Structure formats: C-alpha cells, structure tokens
Amino acid sequence: MPLDHIVSILPELNKAFFETLYMVGISLTVSIIVGLPLGILLFVTDRGLFLEQILVKNVVGFIVNLVRSVPFIILLVALIPFTNWLVGTTIGPTAASVALSVAAIPFFARVVETSIREIDKGVIEAAIAVGATPWMIIREVLLPEARPGIIQGATLTLISLIAYSAMAGIVGGGGVGDLAIRYGYYRYDNTIMFTTIIVLVLLVQVIQLAGDIFSKIVDKR
C-alpha cells in the first residue's frame, strides 16, 4: 500500500472510525438497557418458572424472533420512515444507530436468556425455598450467576454491531463502512478498502480480547 496515500486519508479514516464507535456505542447501550430485561422476561415467564406467563413468553418470543429473522439491510431500509420521525434524518451515524439498536435488542435478549438458562435450577429452587421474592431472585441469583455469559454476549453483540455498521454505509450511515464504499468500492481504491478492513479486524480483536478478560474477572464460579 502506498504510504503517502494512507497518510492522505488519515483524517477521513479517523472521522469514520469515531463515527463507527459512536454508532455501535449508542446501539450497544440501547440493546443492554432494553435487551437485558427482555431476556430476563423471556426466561422467568417460561413454563415451570416463578413468574410463569406462557402467553407473555410466546408473544415476546415471537416478536424477538420476527425482528431477528429480517436481514439487516432490509431492516435498515424498512425503518427509514421511523428513523426520520425519531431523529429527523435518514443519513449519518445517528440515523444508522436506530436500525442498529432495533437489530441488536432481540439478539442480546436471546443471549441473556441463554446465559440464564445455563444456571443450575437448584440454585433458583433454593432461593424460592427460603422465601426470596421474584425481584430478589433476579437481582441476587440470576444476574450474578449469569454475569460472565452476559458479558460474553455483550461482546458478541458489539462485534455483530460493528459488522452491521459497515453495512449501514450502503445507505449513507457513515463510519468505516461508508468510507470503504465511497472511496474504496466506488473509486476502485484498493488501498482504502484494505485499510478499512485492517482497522475493523483490529477493532474486533481488541473488543474480543477485552470481553474475554472481563468475563473471566467477574466469573466467581
């Protein structure tokens, strides 16, 4: 790769990199705020659990599966009217973060549900036996026991969001993906294309390493 060419695109690359961080940061935050309680709800309302509500479980599960089944690029386009109503624009990283959040919420919710299902049922039964309330069971048993899996799930969600954010560049979402498409693909500039790929690969590696370390730190089992 010509070094002088890479240097010349550094300002654009720097801007695109921080746009990507901005998009995935918002989306991950929203997915945790909404997806965490949604995942807990999917678990505790299941058959045989302490807040059994099969209708709620089935309805929420159907909605989660419905959103997850839609390819992201289709979801991105389908949400354009909603995005425009919510943030007042359909282009840029803020607009892209809306579709990213919608895609990430059900994904993270299922990860949370799966992590909680790995908890030994005996631990939950013991908490019920001593008279713990549902809120106490969730706060003192489910969340602490599932914490390593939830952190790993958040890491996986974040990495998926980076991939999705690159796809958002197709509709002018900004970020590294947008830079790769506008300068690399449309202008047949392989230098920019390979540079953006390297940046994304390194970002994913750092996130995965940090997630693995943090998960081990909080794992008290």
From TrEMBL:
The record describes its membrane topology as: Multi-pass membrane protein
Compartment annotation: Cell membrane
Residues covered by the ABC transmembrane type-1 domain: 17-211
One GO cellular-component annotation of the UniProt record comes to:
plasma membrane
Keywords attached to this entry: Cell membrane, Membrane, Transmembrane, Transmembrane helix, Transport
Tell me, which GO biological process terms does this entry list?
D-methionine transmembrane transport
Q: Coiled-coil region(s) at which residues?
A: none
Family designation:
Belongs to the binding-protein-dependent transport system permease family. CysTW subfamily.
SUPFAM superfamilies found in the cross-reference section:
MetI-like (SSF161098)
Question: Quick one: where is this thing mainly located?
Answer: membrane
Under Pfam families, the record lists: BPD_transp_1
Where does the chain cross the membrane?
A: 20-43, 55-80, 86-109, 150-171, 192-211
Designated name of the protein? Methionine ABC transporter permease
Listed PANTHER family = ABC TRANSPORTER PERMEASE (PTHR30450), D-METHIONINE TRANSPORT SYSTEM PERMEASE PROTEIN METI-RELATED (PTHR30450:SF1)
Please report the organism this UniProt entry assigns to the protein. Answer: Jeotgalibacillus soli
Q: Which domain of life is it from?
A: Bacteria
